[in-house]
Amino acid sequence: MPLQLAIAVTHLVSRKRQTLVSLTGIVLGVAFFLAVSSLMRGSERDFIKRLVDNSPHITVSDEYRHPRLQPANELWPEGAVELRRVKPLTEVRGIRGHAEKLAFIETLPGLRAAPVLVGSVVLTFAGRIEGVTLNGIIPAKMKGVSTIDEKLVEGSLDALAANPNGIVIGAGLAKKFGLTMGSVVNAASPGGEVRTLKVVGIFRTGNAGYDENQTFALLKRVQGLLDRPDRVNRFVLQLDDPYAAREVAATIEQRVGYKSVSWLEATEDLMNVLLVRNLIMYSVVSAILVVASFGIYNTISTIVMEKTRDIAILKSMGFHARDVRRIFLAEGVILGLIGSVLGVALGIGLMALLGRVELKPPGATDLVRLPIYWGWEQYLLGATFALISAVGAAYLPARKAGRVHPVEILRGMG
Amino acid sequence: MTPILAAERLGRILPGEVPVTLVEDVSLEVGRGEFVAIMGPSGSGKSSLLYLLGLLDRPTSGRVLLDGRDTSGYGEDELAATRLRQLGFVFQFHFLLAEFTSLDNVLLPMRRLGAPGEDAARRRAEDLLDQLGLREHARKYPHQLSGGQRQRVAIARALANDPPIILADEPTGNLDSVSSATVRQILHDLSRETGKTVIAVTHDLTFAGAADRKISIVDGRIDPHWQA
Prior knowledge:
The complex is a heterodimer. Helix content of chain A is 57%, strand content 17%. Chain A is built from 17 helices and 12 strands. Chain A has helices at residues 3-14, 16-54, 71-75, 98-107, 139-145, 148-151, 158-162, 171-177, 208-213, 219-225, 245-256, 263-266, 268-306, 308-317, 321-355, 376-402, 406-413, and strands spanning 58-61, 111-125, 128-137, 152-155, 166-170, 184-188, 194-203, 214-218, 234-239, 260-262, 358-359, 368-369. Chain B is of the alpha/beta class. Chain B has one domain (5-222): 3-Layer(aba) Sandwich (Rossmann fold). Chain B has helices spanning 46-53, 76-86, 102-113, 118-131, 147-159, 177-193, 205-209; strands at residues 5-14, 20-30, 35-39, 61-66, 69-70, 87-90, 165-169, 197-201, 213-218, 221-222. At the A-B interface, helix 1, helix 14 and helix 17 of A face helix 1, helix 2 and helix 3 of B.
């Protein structure tokens, strides 16, 4: 063992109680850091997971990000003559050439895509009338991009394929209308088309708005109902890596031309809130470690004061100022390292304990476990921060020790 | 022959609102193997002179020549390295590290120097303690030793790196007469038998009587007429 380290160890061992107290500060600091961080990050991930699972990672819709310019404006951007009352070209709504575009998107790695035709229809049943959103889907493809299939409490999406006149509705709508499996409703389009559809599935997502407003039917049927044969107005994409959505959306938008919105873009405000929340959380838990570092500062300062004579004799013997500094810095490192290791262990224990806590939020039917995030980077962050504050706390007393002038001490003794 | 240690017009003034002159215009030469006692009344500046000669303190004027080499241009690191190899200190208070055994205390300077290797250093430390009659006290901690034994451990530590010069500041100042006699004998033998140069500050007339030469300091200056 290097000499400085050996001296550092004996200093700490000779002051067991104080060493233990400052160690406890670091241990508790790291443990709380981990407990709070794992809980906050866990709830964040839980939140994002719900967000990501229940909405498409990328939605390509039949809109443009920037309104198209009139051809005249493009040709003569600084023309002096203004043509008034020029309306944009009337477009047939929908994604043009959707089959080729979908084929292109499907060549991109790590994603699944489904074409959807979304429109508004009016459902009537037993005298009740309600406007809802009707999604025309291809069940086999939809299953790859949405968790709706898992949310079905009765029936299945496949029943749509078997029964072209089927409709899948949410539990909220079913309750409102008093619909059960096998009930028959009328759906009317804005164009006046009316179809009779049979309920073949009921889903419950837990989101009241979604459960009351969203309905699903076979793509071909919806195209007929809305009188938009062979059209889709949306591609819904699901990615293996949800966090790649931003880049993939940009790629698609560049190639396809239509507006592609990733979930990250759609929920940017929420992501910002989460970021701010993390910043607040980490500054608060880091403050615990900063406070703990005062304990270390106190301990090492006391040792330096007590050992002034030893420092004087070491220097008279031929120890350099930096040798002496290293002794006390080593004490900080030792406290920081041991504190980190024990703190991580205690933190893991706390996290395991928190992970077993079961809660029943008001209004919920199921027990909910506290979401705990087990990511290794938290341990690294906590331990690194503890080590930095320990060494930082040791630095000032160590510098003071390095400056001890042996003659001043010897004179005082003589 | 070049003196092993020489002071040329050495002065040390403690700066402050009222500057204090600790040492003034001291010139002396000490030969190899010589045993020199520095005497003088309390506060005469003899310890300050010893710190200057031992490169623990820097003079405000004059210079110290070690084996003919001028040390006034040395940086802190060079001074520390010189102390480590060439100078051994023994103080009035033993200044042993309380958490280390006698053996480990003696090992400190050798470990700092990084030579000889751990095994050889250990053997040398044991030999030194043995020579000073401390064989059975090698594994004891300072608080388990008597004052005289501690001072002998301190001497062993001063000898660890085999420096040519031993500087002692009141080495017997805190000891009873029996222990004083032992320490005096050890320092005497060191200069006679191993050719070490010993420079000791002392109040003790018996101690000074054992020295080859006495230098008297009064008010920071050499005063040949002073009598204790």
